[in-house]
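Support request, please re-run this one:
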Amino acid sequence: MAFHMQGGGEPESIGRGKTLTAAKLRNCPTPELEPGDRAAVDTTLAILECGFLAVVADGEVDEDELHAMGECVAAWMGEEVTYEMLEELFERFGDQVVKEGFDARLQAIGKTLSGKAVRDVAFDFACHMAAANGEIVDDEAELLGSIGEALGMTKDEAAARFEAILESYGKPAENR
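Re-run finished. Output below.
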């Protein structure tokens, strides 16, 4: 996968609530899943992949985006997440995109995530990940539209959800 992880002096782990990112992500959705359930694992991975796709849409993963993903994963797991764990996860998702392509991955995610509530969580998570570094580039906005479509949302519904999330960060959609 052709994306670059920026930064170099990262700490070994990302702890829950230990960075400013945690405060920024206070409204980040949390899936309600049963531990140990294979469907729950598949659902969690599909939600994380939505966030990954949003983050890599511009070809780079910056430190804010990496922290945001780590904070959410740590919160969901109830424990710290190492950068190595995130890199392995990103490599897995990246390999799938290279092998299958973005459209095929979006279709697979859409098939894995059943029910409006979990699809909304996945879309909102992707929006939060895209907004984590404080800027939304055209590639990210376009991909978010594709994610929303793959999750069965209308363009208007996806745009409204995205705008609400941007506003929760204090960034009106018209100023992005």
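Residues 35-170 form a domain with the TerB-like fold (CATH 1.10.3680.10). Residues 1-26 have pLDDT under 50 and may be disordered.
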